[in-house]
Amino acid sequence: MSDAALLDTAKAVRDGESFDVARTDTWLKEQVSGLIGAPQVTQFSGGASNLTYLLKYQNRELILRRPPFGHVPKGAHDMAREFHIQQALKPVYPAVPDMVALCQDSAVMDSDFYVMDRIVGIIPRANLPRGLLLNESQTRELCLGVIDKLIDLHQVDHHSAGLAQLGKGDGYVERQIGGWSGRYGKSKTWNVPGWSYVMDWLKANMPNDIANVIIHNDFRFDNVVLDADNPMNIIGVLDWEMATLGDPLMDLGNTLAYWVESDDDKILQSLRRQPTHLPGMLTRQQVVEYYCDRTGFKTDNWAFYEVYGLFRLAVIIQQIYYRYHNKQTRNPAFKHFWLANHYLHWRCKRVMKNK
Prior knowledge:
- The chain has 2 domains: 3-117, 2-Layer Sandwich (Phosphorylase Kinase, domain 1), CATH 3.30.200; 136-353, Alpha-Beta Complex (Aminoglycoside 3'-phosphotransferase, Chain: A, domain 2), CATH 3.90.1200.10.
- The model has no long low-confidence stretch (mean pLDDT 94).
- α4 runs parallel beside α9 (302-325), α6 (248-257) crosses α9 and α9 (302-325) packs antiparallel against α10.
- It is of the alpha+beta class.
- 38% of the residues lie in helices and 11% in strands.
């Protein structure tokens, strides 16, 4: 199978998620010289938050990122912030895409958006592309490489990167528990749990911040790009919408909320969106041990970070479902997200009970 068959591909733009291509093309050509022809516009299916489009010119492939349509929570989906974070990180963390242009002109589009160069490669979603066959040793190498990219990010000097003002300083853990609890209340629908017991437990078990570093806040396999010629080589890290300065173990907890092992139950398997079930992948516990061994960070309260990651994921899912429930998006993939909310609630309670 050719390398091209392994690459992540975009599809037709979904109903209700199109934009004025001619107007955008005119604006973009004023920002970027040398673009030839009108762009062919397609949309990437991955992700359930910001929308991602491929603009294919005759001589260049660009990626356009914009917020979702419908209700957008205040402070969320800040395109300018995401653009400037990546622009600052690129010199010290090369896996970030090259930024091209930021638009904040409502005459061009109904929202802010930005454009970046496409990193051409393989994105490991729920399953590796057909034809990409890794043995157990290669899979382990890929797994460690992905974790290492997170560790590398946590070791970036945010002062030298010009990102010292990105966060709010000490108290990150406390702010996150309060912030996500508030967001859940604002997005709750009649058919999901109240989560009050879990939120109270998190408040009662908060550790102090262990460090203040650059964190990605949505670090997953389907947000990395693999080299098509050597899939164990990670050439890109995408989706910096929620990046900030904060506690690195909170970031790791977020990552492991998505981590589905081969022997996890059927419901969790149905929610899997990255290939962490393959032979050679580390277990969640092994990831924690590897991360702490490489970084020197220690924790005797991992259950807190695990429950936090699951709760935060449930809030994100609920915010997406809220838009679907209120007919602000038509994407049918969101129809049953309320069931995932129930399942994550159950998982949190199980972790708390077994602490």
